[in-house]
Amino acid sequence: MSAQSDINKKVFVPRGETMLVAVEVRRRRRTAGRRILQLSTRGGEYATYLCLSVTNRTPPQLLITKVKQFAGSAPFVTRSQWGVDQLRQVNGIDPNKDCPDFDLVFDNTVDQWLCSSSAEKCIFILILYQAYKTYSGGPTGPPVCLPAGVGKSCVPARGTEFINCQPKLTGEACTMNLVIYRVKAFFTRLKKRVLAKRPAPRSKGHFSGGIMSNVVQRVTVSVGERGQRLTRAEDQTLELMHKAQQFADTAHKVRTPLQWYGPHLRVRVQVVRSTSKGQGTGGTVHI
Fold it and tell me: Per the database record, which ranges form the Exocyst complex component Sec3 PIP2-binding N-terminal domain (predicted)?
């Protein structure tokens, strides 16, 4: 179910109204005479829909309603509602080309809106103009009869003025133009959905940063492995030095000299034979 059907079913049908059109809008701000298209500071917390509806009772009344849907909540909330008799001006901003922004001037407030696309804005103004002609007697409004003795008996009522609107929005071929704008709005929404699902491209700086991070990671791993190898070599060297020291200590404790003669170990032992004069002769024992 689309957002428009959901809003009509949950908001307007229970109140005895028929919704004609609904567009998603955002606030627009003016600064120093220039148009600045800017989101509200709370734009990410709710969605705002501007709806045009007509009552089912007689005589029918044309209404403009602002409906909001907050993030994380399914129900729609009605914030403001105006009758078209309170609408004084519809400003299309640019009469020469399609643009997504427009102004609504009421008796007590001015709303500056930005639609999601120029086609959505054109659909809203086109249907508003045709509905205003149908239910309010045209842009000049139906005549209002005054009591006798108060000036003229009948004077034209204050109507709604449509300014800076393209002729195709207020012209005769409204049905064909409405079909064209609906098709444009459909393809615009479809394009946005496709782009939203597509992953964002990486910038050049992000790509270079990724390469540098990979190089740094590889160098860090290489340095760590080399440090581990050096640590193992130092441990082996200390172990060999310890064994050599033990061997030297053991060799000092042995009083008999050791000599290596080729592949066989020979130990020369001095054998002293006692003689009558205190002198002896030596011999050699081979092992």
Answer: 43-135
* Cα–Cα dist 240/223, whole Å: 26
Task: Return all residues near 245 (Cβ < 8 A) that are at least 6 apart.
Answer: none
This prediction's pTM = 0.61
Only one residue has tokens 């020979």, namely 266
More confident residue, 46 or 275: 46
Q: Are 267 and 254 in contact (CB under 8 A)?
A: no
48 in Cβ contact with 116 (< 8 Å) = no
Q: Which residue has the higher pLDDT, 242 or 263?
A: 242
Angle, CA of 76, 182 and 61, to the nearest 5°? 55
Report the DSSP beta bridge partners of residue 26: 114
Number of helices (H), then strands (E), belonging to the chain: the values are: 5, 14
**Among residues 52, 42, 50, which one has the least CA distance to residue 24?**
50
Q: Please give the structure tokens belonging to residue 219.
A: 């160098």
pLDDT single digits (tens) 124-177 = 999 999 999 998 765 544 444 434 444 443 444 568 999 999 988 988 777 888
Give me the chain's average pLDDT, please. 76
Greatest pairwise CA separation for the chain in angstroms = 176
Beta bridge partners of 65: 51, 81
Higher local confidence (pLDDT), 107 or 149: 107
Task: Report CA torsion sign: 106, 110, 114, 119.
Answer: positive
Separation CA 205–CA 211 (nearest Å):
10
The Cα 28–Cα 45 span in angstroms is 17
Q: Is 254 exposed, middle or buried (0-12, 13-18, 19+ CB in 10 A)?
A: exposed
Which among 63, 66, 102 has a CA at the least distance from the CA of 84?
63
